[in-house]
Amino acid sequence: MSIYVIGHKIPDSDSVCSPIALAYLKSKLGEDTVAAVQGDLNPETAFILEKFGVAAPEVKTSFAGESVYLVDHSDLAQSPDDLGDAKVLGIVDHHKLGDVTTSEPLECWIRPVGCTGTIVKEMFDASGVEVPKDIAGLLLCAILSDTVIFKSPTCTPADKKAVEALAAIAGVDDVVALGVEMFNVKSAVAGTPIRDLVKRDYKDFNMGGKKVGVGQLEVVDLAIFDDIKADLLKDINELKAEGDRHSVLLLLTDIMKEGSELLIASDDTAIIEKAFNGQSADCKMWLDGVLSRKKQVVPNLEKVFA
């Protein structure tokens, strides 16, 4: 029986590319592993897989009775709903340690770096396994995506070192140009249903016993949202009501201006304002310099909800 390597719900590029790479590595080390995803690919990830000629993993949401490696997450809210009936063999992640627990010892690679792809590259190095060209391309793109082409405060020297090595293997001469190409794909919103945009890169969190959803859309120009911002705000209010959530927040991130406009749907807007020491107007708030949900948004919210 195969062991599944899975990223979080509503997969982004890191949670697809890193499981593919880790499944390859584990297979080379003698484990029968296969990558899977918990949902459909977003446009950026589909672009990356096509660019490097890699097939999309199987979409699978139930893992009862299976053995799994968790990648790019360790929170139950982002794991399969039946994870309690599966055996977790390991966690590879770059976020805070979540609430997944196990009954047996497990392999853990958790590092404060900008991308899980950086950790997977370190695992290849530690195991003495060469990274093939296509896998190198996937890991390279995952790091460029998660670090916002090195602009995110989560980016570390380890991420830049990994990019340099992976680019050489993948035959990519200009990593910044590749990153911009990826973000141009990510910026394409025309014709996409509003709910698909809201949940393109979305995660639910348990904060002080309250369910809080945080989504993020990263683009090269916030003007892209001018005609649909009201619709996005309406939809996050609907999503909040549907899931019995205390709050749903949507970050509209401008990677060129290096900041985010926060759209707010909340039972208590004041607590959101307190988290960011700011004032909202019409359920919107500009967060200067905020690019990272993981480092600049979720920790602030957890402090005020604690």
UniProtKB/TrEMBL annotation:
UniProt keyword terms in alphabetical order: Hydrolase, Manganese, Metal-binding
Residue ranges annotated for the DHHA2 domain, each copy included: 179-305
Superkingdom of origin: Bacteria
Cofactor: Mn(2+)
Broad EC category: hydrolase
A Pfam family assignment: DHH
Catalysed transformations (reactions): diphosphate + H2O = 2 phosphate + H(+)
Gene Ontology CC: one annotated term: cytoplasm
Annotated GO MF terms: inorganic diphosphate phosphatase activity; metal ion binding
E.C. no: 3.6.1.1
Listed NCBIfam families: PRK05427.1
Name of the protein in question: inorganic diphosphatase
Organism, scientific name: Desulfoluna spongiiphila
